[in-house]
What does this fold into?
Amino acid sequence: MYVLFRRKEKGNVTNILIANLAFSDILVGIFCLPFTAVYTIMDYWMFGRCLCKTTNFVMCASVTVSIMILALIALERHQLILHPTGWKPSVIQAYIAILLVWGVASLLAVPLVNAVDLTDGIHKNISNVLDSLADKSVCLEKWTSVQERRAYTVTILLLQYVVPLCFIICCYLRISVYLRRREGLLGRSYSHMRRINIMLGSMLGAFAICNLPLHIFNIIVEWNHQLISVCYHNLIFSLCHLLAMISTCINPVIYGLLNSNVKQEVKLLVERCVGRTQRRPKNPGRTRKASSCHQMWFSFAWFSKFRSWKKCVLRGSI
It folds into this structure.
């Protein structure tokens, strides 16, 4: 985000959307990754009921925001390349779209927040095996009915994955076909557009690959849970959940590796932090002394020349 705001074209619609994508990734990194990692290792929830609901809300909302922002980026690229003289989203429209995306994502996460709560029933049932976990709580979903849970699972699958992914793929396929047909006419701009599309397509691929196992796991658990052994249920779920959250860490890496401007800004930032932008002399004392001696010698030489010139003038006048 720092690099995006430093760039001259920070008012660009694509940069605004990518900055919002980075913001949602930061929220996942702060509110989800640390707590989920500890929860996976300890096998019980130690952070209280409030954080149990907060982490699930942030995770659900951020995933929805990420895929919807990627869809908006695909739409913006589609209009910019295929219809350069037609309608293109403005900066104000981009901010309005971001607010709408966060509103829809928050509404989509509300049912999950209502269903998630702390419970200790699971550990009490196996207290004879794990005595240390008998009085510990876990953060689980407790739905009022199986039909309600399945309806929410299908809704999440469609809105968070299938529908936006199909829309984005259609946009980039049309862009790819258009660029191939006009490769000779576009000239230098073709390579620039192609590089940007590869970067955005890589971000989309990372999201699709990292979130696919979690959606498959949820579908299997809802309709044929016998396929997954009880002994490996929590382990598989934790791995799928962590993989889905890792996708938020991959986006900055992809954006940095495939964008030359970002590379340059990051390099300058690192050099500023290390202190290499202005190389200091190895022995500043000697340098100062030499410079002061040089100034004294220059002053003395100038004064000597002035005196000799004055004598010549006086002799000539006499």
Summary: The CA atoms of residues 16 and 268 lie 22 Å apart. The domain at 2-274 is CATH 1.20.1070.10 (Rhopdopsin 7-helix transmembrane proteins).
